[in-house]
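ZP: hey, is the NAP complex queued? I don't see it on the tracker
AM: it wasn't, my bad. submitting now with these inputs:
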Amino acid sequence: MKRYAFASFGLEHLRLVDAPVPEPGPGDVRIDTRALSLNYRDLLVIGGGYNPRLRLPATPLSDAAGVVSAIGDGVTDVAVGDRVMTHFIADWQSGPYDGRYLATTLGTPGPGVAAEAVCVPAHATVPIPDGLDFAAAATLPIAALTAWSALVTEGALSAGETVLTLGTGGVSIFALQLGASLGARVIVTSSSDEKLARCRALGAAETVNYRTTPRWETAVLDVTGGEGAHVVVENGGVGTLTQSLRAVRAGGVVAMLGALTGLEGTVDIAPILMKRVRVAGILVDSRAHFLDLLAHLARHPIEPVISDRFAFDDVPAALERQRAGNHFGKIVIDVA
Ligand SMILES: NC(=O)c1ccc[n+]([C@@H]2O[C@H](COP(=O)([O-])OP(=O)(O)OC[C@H]3O[C@@H](n4cnc5c(N)ncnc54)[C@H](OP(=O)(O)O)[C@@H]3O)[C@@H](O)[C@H]2O)c1
């Protein structure tokens, strides 16, 4: 079978290699992958920014959907032939987050899924609901669950409340769709008017171009009667956090999940104090909350927005597309 591996950091070092079909150890299952999806994290992992001490060679990517083709000893709740998708933080099954879970994330340090077959712990899989195809299922494990974590787990969003989400990448478009399905009023920012028009078609109530309106937080305050949003989906990091804190309402939640503009810098924390803002750190979510998300989607179906689809041989080109940032929603790899 084929899998991707990089022996040195950098996308230029990513190679498609021959590898033996992996055999599942005790408690593991083998998934024959049918679709994968990309996340911004994959670029950081391959580039060495995520974990410079990562043991190489490594196989990247975390989101997969496929069919179970073998099970290891002791596996009772997953069977050969099951259609499954991956659960990113393998050992975070339910309850509060524990720092030890970080060592169990897929796509390093856990197994990477950019392969025709991969073995993962049985508890790092979730059944694919009937009616969802592999490509759609592959978009959910990180991006949709992270948006759910921001809006519901941490944001406790109610119908009629306002969500602000930054940009039009994978997480943000799920935040738009899930926010609308929860009955919230959604505001989206983007660098592109064309993308903002697509957001309005998906249900965004308000849109702001952050290039042509650099003080976009003022625009958010304007359209919320000066109050601000109940929940901000903070994808940007240090370059957007000060503005997000100004755009959230008193007592609101800034769901801090991304660092597209960087990790370190100066932030004005005054609004956190004066407005009693809660800044909630997000790391995807537990498997139990993944099941809650799927239950919500069963009642309120949404069609994941797939920006581009690439063949398995073209994973490097797909990652270049992700890096360019011109996509809208998710990028999917079809595995033949
Ligand atoms: N903590 C977690 O659990 C978690 C989970 C998933 C992702 N993340 C993080 O969340 C971020 C987004 O991930 P993703 O996979 O959705 O990325 P993505 O699909 O690559 O999103 C890229 C988009 O972000 C937007 N963007 C870039 N700079 C921006 C800025 N200064 N202000 C507003 N929007 C900006 C752009 O939208 P426009 O083209 O519309 O301008 C760009 O197309 C990344 O930092 C990622 O590492 C964290």
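AM: back. The longest helix spans residues 140-154.
ZP: great, adding it to the tracker
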